[in-house]
User: Which sequence fits this backbone?
């Protein structure tokens, strides 16, 4: 039977309890939604006692389903003020599953000044340890020290200086399976600040002496379906640019159709996109000894991660992804891939969301604080955030904080969370997702780019966003989106996996209803947190400014957004 | 031997990458990345890229973002 850890930061105690039967069959985003609506008051202060930091694994945790070991972090977001589920790859979910832990709930706040670390040892015993010696340590140094102390097989979930300072852009960084680097990020929504508000520096999960054995309804059936499933995903991955190259390949796909954001979502084309795209990336990897096709978690067949080296062949950063490159690159008119990699490293180390930081830098450029394309000045801004200067603290609170402070008229945020690397005027279904998703402007929640709907009418765009948002809710409960995108061709297989694990007849409608229920629960939570239909809109300038590249504007009206979830 | 997405293609001297893709019956769109022997080629390079006769060409379609 799965366990959950309840961490009481007021009494500095940890208890291990059976995982709640009422949440049986849930995982990841679905678990966070149902847990939060029952246990975390929607009107609570995100950095106060009543908010909880929830860490959980997926519906398929502990099994051999490829990419089953995504880690979901949840809580009321210090950035959006609504429900937040931020998920990540890395080693932690695999080790949590090995320890038989489905969920960790971190509650309340310490009564005294201090910093703690939750350590789960090789026998499954969990305790809070004094982490004051790690105070102000950034993630790379911290993880090195943890690996010196506990060995390379200890997985880490940690915050850097940004989380300790309660920056609204603070991330949780998760150590990667193959390299151990803290380069996988639960980045969106400032949950690193939530962790910091609990006085928690890190969760360290040691390699269990004996791995937890999952209980199956029909183990033999599950194993057979799992083999089929993994083969399906592996076959799809062979033709997937993310496997062959990495997510940077999206640059080549978005650059010529106005989707790649340029100069704070100006809608222009970026003529230097080849300097920051897949071709350049692969050339640099080959010349410098970097590597792609890296699994961030054991058993992943998509292998989209990478290690990127500098021009001298020394390690610079890992998990170097499209979102970071798009928002810190062309969106800031920066065309030097090495500088963007350096920025990625600084953000991972400090523990901040690269999308928030990139958009914050764009705010500085738009308002003339620094020049467009000034990479050195952009690096200096990140350093200010790291040092905690007066302006650096504003940077740390992300795009909207900087934009408002500098008087910017074009702030690309929804529910206070800034937009990722897809201009919604040229992928309108994605824009509908940005506007209506309970998570804020979130590309992973329902990206319609490249599908037939892009050229179709408004109703088709809305249909696509609706269906994808539901699908992603159950995908985020089960596995990595990149594996799901290949598995979506055989949904009965997915239903078979669920039923042979949890029992009952294979029924895909139950899985679909899980997605609907999760989405509606999140929306209900946000409504109780005070959000209204006004929060389900894009910033005004997307409706009024035509994309310079394509002439398109975001012409989805309020009514079309309002009725999106009238199931 | 040249392959395009696993399909064998008849090679001739001076063959370009564009011709090989056309012979394979494949159509490119904005979401398709041309990947040849670990190199990425842009669509406007295909007409000028001469093949040697042993290339493994993959046309990789973006299906999600990340």
Assistant:
């Amino acid at each position: 039977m799965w366990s959950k850890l309840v961490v009481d930061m007021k009494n500095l105690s940890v208890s291990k309890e059976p995982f709640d039967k009422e949440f049986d069959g849930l995982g990841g985003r679905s678990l966070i939604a149902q847990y939060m609506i029952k246990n975390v008051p929607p009107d609570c202060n995100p950095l106060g006692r009543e908010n909880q930091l929830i860490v959980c694994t997926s519906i398929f945790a502990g099994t051999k389903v490829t990419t089953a070991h995504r880690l979901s972090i949840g809580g009321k977001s210090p950035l959006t003020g609504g429900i937040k589920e931020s998920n990540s790859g890395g080693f932690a979910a695999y080790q949590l599953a090995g320890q038989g832990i489905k969920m960790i709930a971190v509650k309340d706040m310490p009564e005294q000044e201090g910093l703690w670390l939750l350590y789960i040892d090789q026998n499954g015993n969990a305790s809070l340890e004094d982490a004051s010696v790690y105070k102000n340590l950034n993630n790379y140094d911290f993880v090195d020290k943890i690996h010196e102390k506990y060995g390379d097989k200890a997985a880490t979930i940690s915050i850097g200086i940004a989380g300790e300072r309660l920056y609204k852009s603070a991330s949780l960084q998760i150590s990667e399976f193959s390299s151990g680097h803290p380069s996988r990020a639960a980045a969106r929504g400032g949950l690193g600040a939530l962790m910091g508000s609990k006085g928690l520096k890190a969760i360290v999960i040691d390699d269990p002496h004996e791995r937890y054995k999952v209980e199956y309804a029909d183990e033999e059936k599950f194993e057979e379906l799992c083999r089929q499933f993994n083969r399906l995903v592996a076959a799809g991955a062979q033709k997937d640019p993310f496997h062959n190259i990495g997510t940077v390949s999206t640059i080549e796909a978005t650059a010529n159709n106005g989707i790649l954001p340029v100069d704070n979502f100006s809608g222009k084309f970026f003529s230097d996109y080849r300097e920051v795209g897949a071709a350049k990336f692969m050339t640099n990897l080959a010349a410098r000894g970097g590597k792609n096709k890296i699994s961030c978690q054991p058993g992943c067949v998509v292998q989209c991660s990478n290690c990127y080296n500098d021009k001298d062949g020394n390690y610079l950063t890992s998990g170097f992804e499209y979102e970071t490159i798009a928002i810190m690159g062309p969106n800031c008119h920066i065309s030097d891939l090495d500088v963007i990699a350096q920025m990625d490293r600084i953000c991972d180390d400090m523990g901040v969301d690269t999308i928030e930081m990139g958009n914050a830098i764009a705010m500085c450029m738009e308002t003339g604080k620094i020049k467009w394309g000034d990479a050195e000045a952009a690096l200096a801004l990140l350093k200010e955030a790291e040092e905690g200067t007066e302006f650096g603290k504003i940077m740390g609170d992300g795009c909207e904080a900087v934009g408002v402070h500098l008087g910017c008229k074009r702030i690309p945020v929804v529910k206070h969370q800034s937009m990722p690397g897809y201009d919604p005027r040229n992928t309108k279904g994605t824009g509908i997702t940005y506007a209506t998703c309970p998570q804020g402007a979130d590309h992973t929640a329902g990206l319609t780019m490249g599908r037939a709907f892009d050229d179709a009418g408004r109703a088709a765009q809305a249909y696509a966003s609706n269906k994808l948002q539901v699908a992603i809710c159950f995908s985020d409960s089960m596995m990595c989106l990149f594996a799901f995108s290949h598995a979506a061709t055989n949904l009965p297989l997915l239903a078979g996996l669920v039923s042979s694990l949890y029992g009952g007849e294979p029924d895909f409608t139950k899985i679909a209803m899980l997605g609907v229920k999760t989405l509606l629960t999140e929306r209900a939570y946000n409504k109780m947190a005070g959000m209204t239909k006004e929060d389900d809109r894009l910033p005004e300038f997307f409706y009024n400014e035509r994309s310079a590249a394509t002439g398109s504007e975001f012409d989805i009206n309020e009514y079309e957004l309002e009725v999106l979830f009238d199931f | 031997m040249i392959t395009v997405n696993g399909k064998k293609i008849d090679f001739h001297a001076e063959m370009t990458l564009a011709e090989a893709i056309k012979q394979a019956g494949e159509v490119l769109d904005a979401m398709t990345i041309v990947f040849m022997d670990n190199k990425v080629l842009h669509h406007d390079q295909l007409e000028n890229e001469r093949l040697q006769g042993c290339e493994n060409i993959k046309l990789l379609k973006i299906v999600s973002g990340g």
